[in-house]
Amino acid sequence: MKAALWYGRGDVRIEDVPEPSPGPGQVKIKVKYAGLCGTDIHEYVEGPMFIPTEPHPITGAKAPIILGHEFAGEIVEVGEGVTDWKVGDRVSPEGYWICGTCHWCQRHQYNYCENLAFHGFSAPGGFAEYVVSPTYQLYRVDDRISWEEAALIEPTANAVRAVNLARPLLGEKALIVGAGPIGLTVLQALWASGVSDVIVVQRPGVRLETAKKLGAKWALDPDKDDVAAVVAEVTNGLGVDMAFECAGTESSFNLCLRSTRKGGRVALIGQTTSKWSFYPNDIGFYERTVFGEVAYCGEFAIAIRLIADGKINVRDLITMKIKLDDLVSVGFRELMENRRNHIKIIVSPE
Ligand SMILES: [Zn+2]
Ligand SMILES: [Zn+2]
Question: Which ligand has its closest atom nearest to the C-alpha of 109?
Fold first, then answer.
């Protein structure tokens, strides 16, 4: 089968590899669409970040590894002992491969598993015609969700988790810095949670335009607009109740900190390998809470429901559909050189 393999920094190849077959408790999935993620670009440009160079203790996988962790597809084969899933089921798997025995797995906080592997980094991923998943990863894709949309369940689950961790209350006000796929799903999850005002900060392009389309009354360009003045105006000078850092830059983190009210919450979602500087007093003197967020722990079910019910529109986040052969030459290149015109690029392995 055809697959996209990460060999090293700047070296991703489309190759023919043997089809995987499901072991006991696993299913084989025919991938319909897989989303191209900022994390894939990070691995391509500055990796390895999550890709192991030694065999992973759970999966035995190491580079070269098939990329892709945001995908959905149809079950085409079930392994020994699988009774609750059948051929033809529409599924989207969580990324986690877990040990099931460590401290965190015993507490059912499997996203903290000491030994975890993840599709597309330390287990073969979805940029391939077929992928194998243990059944504990599987969620049923609602029939109201198209295959294209289903590729965005995974990033939506991230956004759902970030918003739930921020504990929004009815009528609160929020700031989002960075309107990529995560920022724009955070925006919609916030609407679903009952916040009254969201200010979005993003450089001009399709991301900023989409933020407006999705209901952000204040969609600001950080280079031109006076964000602090708008935050003050919208919040009567108090600052927003919560801010979501979805850009992964020092300036956006500091903007989030300083735009948040006393006692407010700042979610750190953006990824970077660089060091940042900030004033600790911007946290301490104002009793602000900064918290991290990565991936999910059961939020797939909520994401699927919100997409199916039309409360989170992921359809309008898809800016390009490509074939697997064009993953590097078109997909990676577009996201690196023409990012302002893209939100989510999805890949069909067929
Ligand atoms: Zn991702
Ligand atoms: Zn574990």
Answer: 2
Please, what is the Cα angle at 304 between 58 and 33, to 5 degrees? Answer: 65
pLDDT of residue 168: 98
> Each residue of 200-231: pLDDT tens digit?
999 999 999 999 999 999 999 999 999 999 99
Ligand 2 centroid to 109 CA: how many Å? 8
Query: How many A from CA of 222 to the centre of ligand 2?
Result: 42
Which ligand neighbours the alpha carbon of 95 most closely?
1
Ligand nearest the Cα atom of residue 345? 1
Cα–Cα distance between 289 and 280 in angstroms, integer? 12
**Per-residue pLDDT tens over the stretch 66-76:** 999 999 999 99
CATH 3.90.180.10 holds for 2-152+314-348: yes
pLDDT at 65 over 90: yes
226-268 pLDDT per residue, tens: 999 999 999 999 999 999 999 999 999 999 999 999 999 999 9
* Nearest ligand to the C-alpha atom of residue 125: 1
What are the residues facing 74 on neighbouring strands? 30, 90
| Cα 281 to ligand 1 centroid, rounded to whole Å | 32
Q: Which fold would CATH assign to domain 156-292?
A: Rossmann fold (3.40.50)
> Cis ω on the peptide bond leading into residue 168 (within 30° of 0)?
no
User: Helical H runs in 32-176?
Assistant: 38-46, 103-106, 147-150, 153-166
Q: Where are the domains of the chain?
A: 2-152+314-348, 156-292
